[in-house]
Amino acid sequence: MAPTTRRYELLSAAMLGFGHLCIMVGYDSGSFVLESVIHSIHERTPKAIGKYAGYYGQAVMYIIYMIGCLFSPSILNEIGAKYILICSAICFASFPLGFFFVNSYYYYFSQMLLGFGYALYYQGHGGYLTSHSTRKTIESNINIAWCVGCICLLLSSGILATVTHMTLDSREIMQNLKNSTEFEPVERRFSDLEIKLLFGVFLGASVLGIVNFISCPGKDVTNCIQETKKKGTFMEGFKQTCSALTSKSMLQLFPLFTVLGTSSSFWLSIFTTAMNFTAANSNLTYLAAIYPLSVGVGEIGTALFITQMSRRFKDFSLQPTMLIGAIFSILGFGLVHVSTPYDAPMRPTQEVPLLFGHSYLVISVIGVIVGIGDCCLNSCRSVICALAMPDRRAQAFSISKLYQALGSCVLFFASPIIPLYVYTIGVSIHLIIANVFFNITARRTQTMEKDMQ
């Protein structure tokens, strides 16, 4: 068999990133507005769906996600990374479909499918990267795939801005009617036309993701980290996953994995809901589009930066990147703390923030900072999972997502009753703890690699 080239690796990483882009355009964009969309539907037709179904649906999704993570390494072992990615993309496509005929039964069923698809996707994502990368190129390939994938945030911004502009007249009529009857500004509302246009685009992007994963190169690269070949039975793989749950490395990385769940859920859904629930933001028509645009700029710029630094400095994606991620994430929480009403995540509010309110500039700054922090934390997770347990990489990727889902699940179930300041202070402390334990694991992994040379 002819050896593969660096160009083949780059193509594989780029196509993996493009698939991520396609399915996450639908998922991330939907999450930015999900609770606000559900709240708008509930206001018009209370019997169709509960007003907090956005939060509770995502909590259900993460429960199935956790369960799926226990079995996804065994499924990967049976069918390989490429086919598991295709199956996951089909599950992602089922979710936006439900917004053309909203009812609680299909909504929660599609959230369950989405949770299972999420578990499959990230297992396939990690497996595909390790089978299409060498130890020398893994850090670079991870960040290339992440950089391409994060363009989804720029596309999300464009989609949200375009649909908002197209439906502006009907939305303004609805808003004015509410204002005239309530004599005070109301939170951001989504019209039926706006909802159908948004989720129609998300569905189309998910279908494109399915086609992309079908087209992805399947052959492993020469001297790859993890070959695509079946090892053992389905149940043997399941037992390995269960035993790895309590391994020393995974327990030390538990704070990192769970803080990824709490922080990403906050930035993706809870903070965006708080923006839309703040009555003072009702005239900031394009706020929902500005935020993902600025997050995308931060994510992509940081991924390019980490890629270049990883080529120059070995292990830059470990301790240095983790420190940068923690600092910027805590800074982002600080800005949210002083600029957002304390009860905005729980209900529509007219309360005032501590220091200053939201504006396009403030949200843009927060978004870029969030993007930098999130990219760093996710890069650290991907690299350490590929290196910390060389004999059980698939299980390490799966457990990282299981613990992440646990953090998200707890957060979403409690979201209707948790004020903003619990998030901003609690998750910041969580980040500091995660940084300490990550450094311990990273140093032990580096020592282990030196001993093996």
UniProtKB/TrEMBL annotation:
InterPro entries: Ion_channel_UNC-93 (IPR010291), MFS_trans_sf (IPR036259), UNC-93-like_regulator (IPR051617). It is a multi-pass membrane protein. Gene3D superfamilies: MFS general substrate transporter like domains. It is found in: Membrane. Keywords: Membrane, Transmembrane, Transmembrane helix. PANTHER family: ET TRANSLATION PRODUCT-RELATED, UNC93-LIKE PROTEIN MFSD11. This is UNC93-like protein MFSD11. It comes from Caenorhabditis elegans.
